[in-house]
Amino acid sequence: MVRIPIRLGLALTAALVVVPAGVARGGDAATAPVGQRLGGAPAVQARYQADYRAVLDPESGLAHVRWRLTGNEGYVGRISLRVDPDRYHNLEGDGTIRAQDGWIHWEPSRGRAELRYDVQLDHRRAADKGFDARMTPEWALFKGEDLFPPTRTLETVPGAEADARFTLEMPDDWSLVATRRGVGRQSVEIEEEHRLLDRPTGWMIAGKLGVTREKIAGVWFVLANPAGQDFRRMDLLAWLQVTVPELSRVLGSLPPRFVIVGAEDPMWRGGLSAPDSLYLHADRPLVQRDGTSPVIHELVHAFMHARAGKGGDWIVEGLAEWYSLEIQRRAGLMSRRRFRKALERLEQRGRAAVDLEVASSNGDTTARAVGVLDRLDHQIREATRGRRSLDDVVQRFQVERRMITTARLREVSEEISGRDLGKFFAVNTAGTHRATGVTG
Ligand SMILES: [Zn+2]
User: Distance, CA 23 to ligand 1 centroid (Å)?
Assistant: First the structure.
């Protein structure tokens, strides 16, 4: 087995903390002095270590997972993991562990404590659909969240800091591509705010791989697929070369590293974004027949900081879809005429969507949303004589990181355009009305 440790040196307060390399690896991290805190007065800081470990076992199809907390002098009272009971087995560990209604509640004993379980890695997107996590004798493709699920943590000492490390063990001749670099003993530190316990997240692929790396618009893109599969990484790379600079102009700063993984059947025939990463089925085209681009759509999702609030999914999906056309137009990949044609087609399809503010935007709703957002872009440009646009709205969302709702979209759009958009929103987002092209 090969061990690839990835250090996630977490500074869990807003202050910058320099973690001496030797400290976080040792078991004495909990008592490390914080004299290294820049600018602030040295203070005794609650500090412990979180060790995440997963062993991939292709023969059994299982990942053996272990969480280990060291130096937890009561800083973490309880960790609750949201799990799929069908995939999580053989639960054991130190302290109190309770499995109930799709949750594992773990109250770790003080000092050093472990939680161990096995995860059935294979998982289908839906009963009759392809896999969105899979392990074969040759490779494994999954998200960090498959092994270390979303948690709720009861912290008894607010502001306690954790040094976290993730180690993946896998067959000798395998290699790993993940959102954080981990080669040999090389360590990478990240800072996270407002989170007590950070977990490994994002898409990962391990095994015998085909890999292409390139820096585009300040982002190290890593494209990877199981060796021997046809993911057309060079086509994708060329596409990224022309579209990512445009995306970065709209969305502002992008992550320093971004992973795109792909695979053929029986993986799920779609695209899925996760933190700093993206999965695409190998057969997904760069541009679909309707002119939209699944790659750009998923990249917008992955790069957007804000999430949909109640009834706001049409905005999140609509923005991803509208920019999947608009970015192509700006990059010179699509003529204005073809852009308008694609919009008209979506407009047509969107007529089937009676309600925009649905919990999860489907194809029809998203098609209607594209038309609404395109008209909103026109409104803003018209009101500001072309100085402002939908880009400014998105940039505001990027900075404020609030939940996106129809009301918030209207507020920000009105602020940016200086125009009362009450009638526009009444006409364009009404539940019983159809999108009619009225610009109110
Ligand atoms: Zn989407």
Answer: 42
**pLDDT (tens digit, 9 = 90+) per residue, 366-396?**
999 999 999 999 999 999 999 999 999 999 9
Condensed to tens digits (0 to 9), the pLDDT of residues 239-258 reads 999 999 999 999 988 999 99
pTM of the model: 0.83
- CATH label of the domain that carries residue 256: 3.30.2010.30
- 296 CA to middle of ligand 1, Å? 10
Quick one: 166 and 74 in the same domain?
Answer: yes
Residue 334 carries which side chain, given as an amino acid letter? Answer: M
In a domain, 308, yes or no: no
- Quote the ligand 1 centre to 313 CA distance (angstroms): 9
The residue segments making up the domain with residue 55 are 2-21+49-202
Report how far ligand 1's centroid is from the alpha carbon of 382 (Å): 28
For residue 301, how far is its CA from the centre of ligand 1 (angstroms)?
7
DSSP states of 227-271: TTS---HHHHHHHHHHHHHHHHHHH-SPPSEEEEEEE-TTB-SSE
Question: 65 and 143 share a domain?
Answer: yes
Q: Is-contact 51 43, C-beta < 8 A?
A: no
Q: Domain end: 186, 202, 218, which one? A: 202
Q: Which helix (H) or strand (E) is 328 found in, with range?
A: helix 313-330
Q: How far is the CA of 149 from the centre of ligand 1 (A)?
A: 22
Query: Please, what sign has the CA dihedral across residues 297, 215, 334, 306?
Result: positive
The number of folded domains in the chain is 3
